[in-house]
Amino acid sequence: MPRSSLQAPSSVVMIRPHHFTPNVETARDNHFQTSAASDPSAVAQAAYAEVSRAAKTLQDAGVRVHLFEDKSTTTPDSVFPNNWFSTHSGGHAAVYPMHAPSRRAERRQDVLEMLKRDYRVQDVIDYSGLEQDNLFLEGTGAMVIDHLERVAYAARSNRTSEILLERFCTHFSYEPVVFDAVDPQGQPIYHTNVLMCIGTDFALIGLDCIPDPNRRREVAERLRRGERNIIPLSPAQIADFAGNAIELQGRDGLVLALSARALRSLNPDQRATLEQHVTLIPLDIPTIEHAGGSVRCMIAGLHLSARTLQTA
Q1: Which PANTHER family does the annotation name (predicted)?
Q2: Distance of CA 106 to the CA centre of its chain
């Protein structure tokens, strides 16, 4: 029987954009963003095709994909749904406040209604009203959650309020681990999930991006308490989105979804270590990566129990 894990959801939500474009507003603090091709129509078509292929690849591996369409022209980052909601064992979900006003329209009632219809949802805590107080916590972009050890790792940024992080951890029973992380130019890394990925038996993390050596050691030690293999990533590999991956439950066992670019950046030893634990599933998404996010950002994992269909 294939191995399963609380860390690795077997179902996910993805959003397929019809008018994708890198978001000018978020480029102010997302230094992973780059310029896309000049033809907006070509960019949108390429992104649509990349999401379509990615969703099919995951479905072929046995992951249940709930694929929603976004036909709006005012939500350029809608392809990254993990920032506005998350789900947690025991039937819990959260909706989050977003830093950029252009991203707040990404929150969708139809996604939440699907969760309540198809999964056992006990409660939904909505933090989005705290945008009025300039408090932001952009979901599992701002936090990388260890569902096994009950830890929420968070790099400080203007998208991660420590006040709200503490409140979230109190509500959902996680231990907060907060640290500073910067890129080679000394700029704060905007989201924790471009820095690290936690799997069942491994963790990918750009430890060199944590400038305080004491805090760097403490974060590594907390990860090791889960008896995981720690796979350090270089700043160059972080820039190639090697940390922006997600472990999922496939038909034949645990898989790691990551971008083709991220996989190319890994050295043979790193690949070999990962392949001891998961099957690697590279997804080719070069257009979407122009927006400063990669595979992990595109996937909202569902840590919920599916409802059993009632038969007459």
Answers
A1: AMIDINOTRANSFERASE
A2: 15
Answer for the pair 243, 235: CB distance below 8 angstroms, yes or no: no
Residues 6 or more apart whose Cβ sits within 8 Å of residue 170: none
pLDDT tens digit string along 52-70? 999 999 999 999 999 999 9
Which of helix, strand or coil describes residue 126?
Answer: strand
Helix (H, G, I), strand (E, B) or coil at 104: helix
**CA pair distance 160, 136, nearest whole angstrom:** 6
* Phi and psi at residue 136, to the nearest 5°: -130, 145
Helices (H), the chain: 40-60, 109-118, 139-142, 162-172, 213-224, 235-239, 260-265, 268-275, 286-289, 295-298
Complete domains list, the chain, with CATH: 11-301 (3.75.10.10)
User: 160: which residues sit within 8 A by CB, 6+ positions away?
Assistant: 136, 137, 138, 142, 143, 154, 192
How many angstroms separate the Cα of 101 from the Cα of each of 26, 114, 125, 252?
10, 25, 20, 41
Residue-wise pLDDT tens digits, 153-172: 999 999 999 999 999 999 99
Helix (H, G, I), strand (E, B) or coil at 252: coil
